[in-house]
User: Fold this.
Amino acid sequence: MFQPNENYLKLPGSYLFSTVARKQREYAEAHPDKKIIKLSIGDVTQPLCPAIIKALHDAVDEMASADTFKGYAPDLGYEFLRNAIAENDYKARGCDIAADEIFVADGAKSDSANIQEIFTQNTKIAVCDPVYPVYVDSNVMAGRTGTYDKETETWSDVIYMPCLKENNFAPELPKETPDLIYLCFPNNPTGSTITKSQLQEWVDYANKVGAVIIYDAAYEAYISEADVPHSIYECEGARTCAIELHSFSKNAGFTGVRLSYVVIPKEIKRDGVMLHSLWARRHGTKYNGAPYIIQKAGEAVYSAEGKAQLKEQVAYYMKNAAYIKNGLKEAGYDCSGGVNAPYIWLRTPNNMTSWEFFDYLLDKANVLGTPGSGFGPSGEHYFRLTAFGSYESTVEAINRIKAL
Ligand code: MLT
Assistant:
């Protein structure tokens, strides 16, 4: 008799953004006359830039002729894309990463959920609190997180690193020693970040205790300050302890196109076993490679035209971020983020819980955001707004909030 995977039954509620979407649907059905502005999930709204569109069209044309048609992609990614990544995202920044240490895939959400598979069952994970929910939920599904405490909203076998206003939303080194540390900078959801010397402390710590850092750099394109690292490999010693995740969703608008990559340096080893080999084996078994057409679009991200056009797109969203932050400040909100990241993190007014504020904002301003408590217990009394809307709708949303 079959038995469902009981680890899934331990997950409290549904996935955060599914709950937000359900609440939006219910509200829209009950109030069909209201125009809801969505500043909740970090989904882009601007069209793909012309250099990427051209690459897509050209690649589609190649598929129309037997001479240039492509079948299965190499499971680790086409050389042309891996070389472009190695050259532009690493060599140009003085980071020592080879093309064959880069694994191309179809999205950083799935990469961040899947990466835990190459670690042993009793791996102790440490996460920031608040945190992108996928890191914890994927470990719950793998049966690695112990029991859930409804009161504290925490798992018994997870190390939580609170990111609060008092520590500038930057985690402190944990007291208990983890095996796997998830870090995301610039941070989702708080929009905060850390300097290169702060990140170096994490790398030194991981090397000292023999831990691996999963470094999610999905938002690096939004960095505007000079001392903020774009890659963990800017730090000395990262090649022996850090795996880096990259998304094309936020820097190039690929949320609906799907493309990502994972970097695993060959120097991360335990008893002679390279994590690189395990991930390659996993990819070979479970994945047939991101589509050729999409990888050609990814290559265009690194062309001269692509770079210039995407710089403008990032600036467009960061103009939204500035509008949100300034507007909220004028309205008396305590908020942060929005300088090196497309997220604004605000304290809810009048001590409202995050979900109370969610309902209040949806009902009174018809603006949809994301409750901070959905990212972890330290996110309670906080709320996240994204800068990925159109400029016009962002302005309207903030003006509605200011008028409350
Ligand atoms: C978010 O809103 O946190 C992100 O868009 C979710 C994601 O990238 O999967």
DSSP finds 13 helices and 17 strands in the chain. The mean pLDDT is 97.
